[in-house]
Amino acid sequence: MLLLLPAVGVPNEELLQDSLKSMIAIFCTLAAGFAFFWRAYQDGIRGNPPRIRWHGIQFLLLGLMLYALSSMVWSHTYLGGVEAVRWAVWGGVFFLGLQVFTRNNRPHYSAINGLAWCIHGGAVLASLWAALQFWMDWHFFAQGPNPASTFVNRNFFAEFLVCTLPYSVFLLTRLADKTSVFLLTFSLAFNTVALMMTGTRSALIALMGLLVVIPWIGWRYRQHWVSRGWTIKHRAGLILVLVTTVLLLGNLPTHNRTLIAEIGNTTALERAVARTTSIARSEEFETGSFSIRAKMWQATGRMIADNPVTGVGAGAWEVHIPRYQEAGAELEPDYYAHNEPLQLLAEYGIVGWIFLLLLLAYLLRTGWHLLRYSPRDGLLPSLVLCSLFAFLLVSNAGFPWRMASSGVLFALSLAVLAASERTKWERELKPRTSITVLCGLAVSTGLALHGSQQTIECESKLMRATQIALTIRASGDPNNPYWDNDKAIMLQWLHEGVAINPHYRKLTPIAADAMIGWGDWGNATWIWHSVLQSRPYIVVLLVNVAHSELHQGHREAAESYLRRAQQIQPTARSVIQLQQMLEATPKTIPANRSKNQNPALSGE
Q: How far apart are CA 337 and CA 327, in angstroms?
């Protein structure tokens, strides 16, 4: 799973990259569950039932899943269900990892080594795709901001990659062959250069922290390296390989046309330095991405203050965020808060507080124990803590908890950390319990297959329909009869996609906005309606529907949508313009049937 997740992507835009990665994570977890419990059943009927291990982290993940299930009753049903599945997968990954990575109540280094090699191998493959995109403008995987490897967005790739670096260092400590160590060092440096190519500032800051902490950990536990006994020349050569690789590869210029248009013909090192130092510039706090994030965090803070106990419901941040934006805002900044702890508190309320405080207390206690007692087996948990540190740091400026690759890595890191402890609860696993779990896994696999098929069909149809709509609008003559057949196909795919998942709102509004370009108000309106049924507080969509109703002669309906928009953002520019338009419009007007007389939509 950890090898495939970062290395595999979709070569076209008809399926989102993270949808594929989520499917890989789910099916690999289910397969691992089948393998574990089938083996447990066989051992049980032979009279040697295994003992399963439990840890407090397992109950924290279970608590979030139960809250998400309960929020389906009183909050957003679909989004709550998605969150429940996410925590169930994470909980399953953690549970299975805890069993596999523990032997005789100690870390099972053979299994952990295998995990680390797959994490490193997947990171190298993902870095290779990113390097090809950066150096050669290689187009194969569908992506947005370059170089994104297989992750559609370079930030997602960087947030995952920085968390893998401590595992690569762990592998260095487990190798005795000098040639293997030097080759692994080269690949570690290559991954570092790929991280620099992204220019993701949170990941680069995490990298700088790792560059300080990891060498100290390596020196502290140097007696426990498998490759101990090296001479000073060997160690100097290792450092030389690392530094030289970074300097040589980091100074190769990009030939990616998109990046050249964005930042010029720069190198990975130049990009990393420029992006990191940009944090201190005043314009970044005024108009840059930090300013946008700050507004989202402030709105999320207001959401937390308004719902301190229950939260707004699992996954429902994107539903309610328009109600908490600053006065005059009409467009949503994003679908996520770009700060996972804040979003967790806003959605889960007191349950989120309990999870975060107990998780941080556990990590701090483990770190303090390692600092104070320096146990013999402290090298592994210290490096895993570094990976978790990087994950939590980037979580304050992105949303890696929502991404399949980084989320699964987080759950497995917690499992490795828990496996390194001596204290775990154990209980005998009876054969009938194994059979019950296997039946549940079979049902879950059937549901996962059905859900995956529906996801592939839905995203494919909506994406193709959106592409057709944008092509027609960009043609310059969208009302030419030549496009009639394409419009019919587009509408069919939109109807079928929305019928499969009426809550999917990232693509359909784009198609609706394009339809206004050729005056198709009716079909644009039903698309906006379908989105508003699931996300009722989006001001710009309320204004768009009001314009459409007014254009078709439905003044009362337009006034109704205006009132809804005024309740959310009365001072928004588009809302004020709509009010002025209604005041200037006669009380009774005929529906405008002309396809060439379309009032401009503010915020389109």
A: 18
Cα 77 to Cα 313: distance, rounded to the nearest angstrom: 9
Encoded tokens for 61: 């993940």
**Going by C-beta distance under 8 Å and a sequence separation of 6 or more, which residues neighbour residue 578?**
543, 546, 547, 558, 562, 565, 602
Place of tokens 């970062």: 6
Structure token digits, residue 319: 């539903």
Element (H, E) at 102: strand 102-103
| Inter-helix orientation angle 17-45/77-100, to 10° | 50
pLDDT digits (tens, 9 = 90+) for 419-464: 988 766 888 999 999 999 999 999 999 999 999 999 999 999 999 9
Q: How many CA atoms lie within 13 A of 533 on its CB side?
A: 12
Please classify residue 279 by burial: count the beta carbons closer than 10 Å to its beta carbon, then call 0-12 exposed, 13-18 middle and 19+ buried: middle
Long-range contacts of 274-280 (CB under 8 A, 24+ apart): 274/199, 275/199, 275/200, 275/201, 275/204, 276/201, 276/204, 276/205, 276/208, 278/201, 279/201
The rounded distance, in Å, linking the Cα atoms of 225 and 219 is 10
For residue 593, the model assigns a pLDDT of 44
Residues 346-389: tens digit of each pLDDT: 999 999 999 999 999 999 999 999 988 777 788 999 999 999 99
Per-residue pLDDT band at 105 (split at 50, 70, 90): confident
Contact 221/378 with Cβ under 8 angstroms?
yes
In the numeric block, the tokens 């928009």 are attached to 565
- Contact criterion met (CB below 8 Å) for 147 and 138: no
Beta bridge partners of 426: 53
Helix (H) / strand (E) containing 106: strand 106-107
Supply the mean pLDDT for the chain.
90
Q: Buried (b) or exposed (e) across 300-324, using 16+ Cβ within 10 A?
A: bbebbeebeebbbbbbbbbbbbbbb
The pTM of this model reads 0.92
pLDDT tens by residue, 493-546: 999 999 999 888 888 989 998 998 888 888 999 999 999 988 999 999 999 999
46/159 Cα distance (integer angstroms): 46
Nearest by Cα to 165 from 388, 376, 381: 388
CB 591 within 8 Å of CB 553: yes
